[in-house]
Every structure is written in structure tokens, then in C-alpha cells.
Design goal:
The chain has 119 residues and is of the alpha/beta class. The protein has a four-stranded parallel sheet with strand order 2-1-3-4, with helices on both faces. The protein is flat. It starts with a helix and ends with a strand.
């Protein structure tokens, strides 16, 4: 679990640093959405969420982690990225399991000025 928290904190720190450097100072907290291809039943991603939530609190960021309804569902992940775009997230963090399917929606987010960190 400690490793999951370190990964989530490092990811959030990178997202916050990139956004802070690219946007003027604002009174509101940054909106960061983390999407991936796993459901809430996946213990690894639940651990990552714990670390992500703590990092968001530490950085005073408005964060949300979106799980898929079905484990490994790429269509659900794409829909979650589209949800983040519609909510006008400042940044989207995502784990790519299928680059051919995910890259077009990542490009869409980038074209709308949303910072995307994908691995």
C-alpha cells in the first residue's frame, strides 16, 4: 500500500507542477481527474486511490478518481475521460491499456487545453 501511495503522490505532484507552470495563479483549486481501466473491486487501484486522495488533500486540489464499471473496460475508461473533459478538468491522469483506443480521446482533451499525463 505504501508504494501505491508514493506512486499516486508522485503522479499528483507532477500534475500539479505542470499545471502550476502552465496556468496563471488562481484562487480555486486545480481540478484533476484520474481515470484508468479498472473497477473499484481492484485492490491495487483502491490503494492508489488512497494515496491519490491524500495527495489531493495535501496539495489542496479538487480531485476525482473514476473507476470503470467492469474490470478492464476500455469503453468505460474512454467514457470516463470524456466525462472529465465535460467537467472541464484542468488535468487528466490516465493509465493506458490500449493506446489505439485511448489516444483519440486524449488528443481531444489536449486540444481543449486540458493537461494530460498518460502512462
Amino acid at each position: 500500500m505504501q508504494l501505491n501511495r508514493i506512486i499516486a503522490c508522485a503522479t499528483l505532484a507532477a500534475a500539479v507542477s505542470v499545471m502550476a507552470a502552465s496556468q496563471p495563479a488562481a484562487a480555486e483549486s486545480l481540478k484533476i481527474v484520474f481515470t484508468h481501466h479498472s473497477s473499484v473491486s481492484n485492490s491495487f487501484w483502491r490503494g492508489v486511490r488512497t494515496g491519490f486522495d491524500q495527495a489531493c488533500e495535501d496539495y489542496n486540489a479538487d480531485c476525482q478518481m473514476l473507476f470503470t464499471n467492469t474490470e478492464g473496460s476500455i469503453p468505460d475508461q474512454i467514457n470516463n475521460i470524456r466525462t472529465a473533459i465535460a467537467r472541464q478538468a484542468d488535468a487528466i491522469v490516465t493509465a493506458i491499456a490500449n493506446d489505439e483506443a485511448i489516444c483519440p480521446v486524449i488528443k481531444e482533451a489536449s486540444e481543449r487545453g486540458i493537461i494530460v499525463l498518460a502512462s
